[in-house]
Description:
Elements: E1 5-9, H1 14-26, E2 31-35, H2 49-54, E3 57-59, E4 65-67, H3 68-76, H4 91-113
Parallel strand pairs: 1-2
Antiparallel strand pairs: 1-3, 3-4
Amino acid sequence: MISTETLYYDGKCALCSKEIKTLQRLKDSDLVLIDLHSLRNDEFTQSPKSAMLELLHLQTANGTWLTGLDATVQAWSHTKIGWLFKPLRWPVVGTVADFFYKKWASRRYCKLYE
C-alpha cells in the first residue's frame, strides 16, 4: 500500500509551476510532486499523458485517483493552509469552481500543446 500521495503536474505550465513551487515549500512529507514531463511514456498507466497534462491528477494513499480541483484540494490538505481550499468542494461553490477550472484547463492545454 502507498503511504504517500502523489500529485502529477504539468511543469511546462507557468501558472502550474508557480503553484507547485509554493506547494513544495509548504507541504508535508506525505505528498510527492511529479512533473509529468519527467516520466517516460511507458510510465503512464492511469491515463494517457495528454489526459494527465490537461487536468491535475493525484493518486491517494489508498490508490484512488483524483483529478482537477479534487486533486488540488487534496494536495493542499498536506499544508497548514489546506483549509482555505475546502470551500472549492462545497456544493454550489464546487459546481461553479469546477466549471471554470475545466474551461481554463482546456484552454491552457490547447495553447500549450496543440
